[in-house]
Specification:
CATH architecture: Up-down Bundle
Largest sheet: none
Number of domains: 1
Strand content: under 5%
CATH topology: Substrate Binding Domain Of Dnak, Chain:A, Domain 2
Distance between the termini: 118 Å
Shape: rod-shaped
Number of helices: 6
Structural class: mainly alpha
Order of helices and strands: HHHHHH
Radius of gyration: 31 Å
């Protein structure tokens, strides 16, 4: 009876190994829904910060990477999509900071101009109307 058992199970380890390899091949990275959503939020925040006016190149880069991430998802390249979405997030944040910096610089310039105007008005011998 022992030879029958050996013949019956002789091919089993090979079949098990092949089944495990097939299952491992089917395992793909999950769709990066969170990264895509975060990229969309980052783009919205950059737009609200004025990036369209003050950092249009950075905003365009972020938008292009988000669109590439969405295309990668349609092509089932989920890991590539996650990486592109993360890059879109970083580009959008840079654009947001650039927009905020530009607005801060413009505010500082306006304040400087007002102070200079006040100094001229208050200078000795100035017309104080």
């Amino acid at each position: 009876m022992k030879p029958q058992i050996e013949r019956r199970f002789a091919g089993r380890p090979t079949m098990v190994a092949l089944a495990l390899l097939a299952l491992a091949g089917c395992a793909a990275p999950p769709v990066p829904h969170d990264a895509l959503a975060a990229a969309e939020v980052a783009l919205d925040q950059a737009e609200m910060a004025g990036a369209a006016d003050h950092a249009p190149d950075g905003l365009a880069r972020a938008q292009a990477k988000l669109e590439a991430a969405q295309a990668a998802i349609r092509g089932r390249a989920h890991e590539e999509a996650r990486l592109l979405a993360e890059q879109a997030i970083m580009d959008a944040r840079v654009a947001e900071v650039e927009a905020q910096a530009a607005q801060t610089a413009a505010t500082a310039d306006r304040m400087r101009a007002r102070l200079e105007q006040q100094h001229r008005r208050l200078a000795p011998g100035a017309d104080r109307r």
